[in-house]
UniProtKB/TrEMBL annotation:
Name of this chain's protein: Glycosyltransferase
Pfam families, A to Z: UDPGT
Record-linked CDD domains: GT1_Gtf-like (cd03784)
Keywords (A to Z) from UniProt: Transferase
SUPFAM superfamilies in alphabetical order: UDP-Glycosyltransferase/glycogen phosphorylase
Length: 504
């Protein structure tokens, strides 16, 4: 009788920034556990409820992942199982509430999917997205040997999540109403200004904050938290969490810092060629901008004196949430004459040829890896930050929503990999042209701040790459995670797994 191959169940939410990093983490976990044959991975795919466009995007990601698995010819044991759709809530007040309530509705589907896995694939562990903590109870009810949370953000955001339940009691009134000179204590970080906190928690009386607090409490019920960072990137925050400073004397969660978790698919080669000639010194990746803000960006870039590639998207179509391709010829988004001024002949004595405005999606990872890129103006989504540090590219932070303002604070004040840039959060995260010009000049070669940031970004490139190779801190954390899964299986699950990693 053939020996069973235990499976690790991954349960991401549908957003690409959550789905794709978890898939990559699952593949790395397979590789770290005996050449990919000690475990298999089963991905339970929740259908994205918001729009048909988002459903199509998720299907595309899954289809490409399935093609990669098929091309691996048995070396990559990953299976995908799509869960039935649920009727999403219509009375939610924000995206985190919406996602969390959809996850709750999927509890019966997840229970049925795990229970229905074949005996040849006994469940060794369940790894849940950070917004899937209600499903910890399902895993416990099914006696799954171990349950982990995959935290797609950085350790600074994790520290905040863990601190939030207590912070809600400690801070009188709303975070958004705190005095401008006040600061919030988030363990492992310098004192945090209230306006650097996560967007959904600024008003504690709203359901969004309640759900963030709920997830922060539930993290303690998991057997560990897998974080997309490296020990070398956030040593102070990781030490603070491990010491229990975020959990007020309660046992801290077991941490596995396995980052950077980045995949580099061989795609978009034609598009790289189309915009690769402009991957010089500056890149702006955004959702969409108002015309007023786009005009400020245009003036700031033009006056900065540096070459740039600006990825500018248009507003979503009615009834959708995703940006559309920008209409550069319509005369509204850009100042009159701007394109002619910056995209002319490189030999034009008038200064033309210094920039390119790209109106659709662009291959960010490949652009950042281009040797000509010297800086990145970023919204500070953590996946983008990891990609930039992997390439040693310094940043100027322009946060917009979610945890991005806290990321920006950590990037400048704790990690030292970004220059400061003033963002007026009370005016819709508005940035004036003069401030963008100053930040770009500083990032690209200005004074002492820019020099230190460039040096730190270069050092973090080395640290990131060293962390994921054999003997590196992240590779060791992955191996430790695989070993812990095996140990818990040996104690609580199938007898066959006891010797899976006996080659250590």
């Amino acid at each position: 009788m053939a020996m069973a191959t235990p499976t690790i169940v991954l349960l991401p939410v549908w957003g690409a920034g959550h789905l794709m990093p978890m898939l990559e983490a699952g593949k790395r976990l397979l590789a770290s556990s005996g050449g990919g044959h000690a475990f298999s991975v089963t991905v339970l795919v929740m259908p994205p409820p918001p729009t048909e466009q988002q459903a199509s995007e998720v299907d595309g990601h899954i289809r490409r992942a399935e093609e990669e698995v098929a091309a691996a010819a048995g070396d990559l044991d990953v299976r995908f199982q799509r869960l039935p759709a649920v009727d999403p809530p219509t009375d939610h007040q924000g995206p985190v509430e919406f996602i969390s309530r959809v996850v709750e509705l999927h509890a019966p589907n997840v229970r049925a999917a795990i229970s229905g896995l074949p005996p040849a694939s006994p469940v060794a562990a369940v790894v849940l997205d950070l917004f899937c903590t209600p499903l910890i109870d399902v895993a416990r009810d099914l006696a799954v040997p171990s349950t982990y949370v995959y935290f797609t953000c950085n350790a600074a955001a994790l520290s905040f999540f863990l601190r939030l339940p207590a912070l809600c009691d400690e801070v009188a009134g709303e975070f958004v109403d705190m005095d401008g000179g006040a600061a919030v204590d988030i363990s492992g970080l310098p004192p945090v200004p209230p306006l650097s906190l996560l967007t959904p928690v600024m008003e504690k009386t709203k359901p969004e904050c309640a759900w963030y607090s709920y997830h922060g409490r539930r993290f303690a019920d998991a057997d560990g938290i897998v974080v997309n960072t490296a020990a070398e990137l956030e040593p102070g925050v990781l030490s603070a969490i491990a010491a229990g400073r975020c959990t007020h004397g309660n046992a801290p969660p077991r941490l596995y810092a396995i980052g950077p978790v980045i995949s580099f698919p061989r795609r978009h080669r034609r598009r790289i060629h189309a915009c690769g000639g402009w991957t010089r010194n500056h890149r702006r990746r955004a959702g969409f901008l108002t015309a007023a803000q786009a005009h400020e960006v245009a003036h700031g870039l033009e006056r900065s004196g540096h070459r740039f590639l600006w990825v500018l998207r248009g507003p979503p179509a009615p009834g959708t949430r995703s940006p559309t391709d920008a209409d550069l010829a319509g005369g509204e988004l850009l100042p009159e004459g701007f394109l002619d001024a910056v995209t002319g002949d490189d030999n034009d004595d008038g200064g033309g040829g210094r920039g390119m405005v790209w109106p659709t999606t662009a291959p960010q990872k490949e652009i950042l890896a281009h040797a000509a890129v010297g800086g990145f103006v970023t919204h500070c989504g953590w996946n983008s930050v990891m990609e930039s540090l992997w390439c040693g590219v310094p940043m100027a932070p322009w946060p917009m929503y979610a945890e991005q303002h806290l990321n920006a604070f950590a990037m400048v004040g704790a990690m030292g990999v970004a220059v400061s840039m003033e963002v007026d959060r009370k005016k819709g995260n508005f940035v004036e042209a003069a401030e963008l010009e100053r930040a770009v000049r500083e990032m690209m070669g200005g004074g002492d701040e820019g020099r230190k940031v460039r040096e730190k970004a270069a050092a973090m490139k080395v640290a990131c790459r060293n962390a994921v190779v054999d003997g590196g801190s992240s590779a060791a954390a992955l191996r430790r995670l695989a070993g812990d899964i095996v140990s818990r299986c040996a104690m609580n699950g199938p007898n066959e797994v006891g010797a899976l990693l006996s080659d250590d």
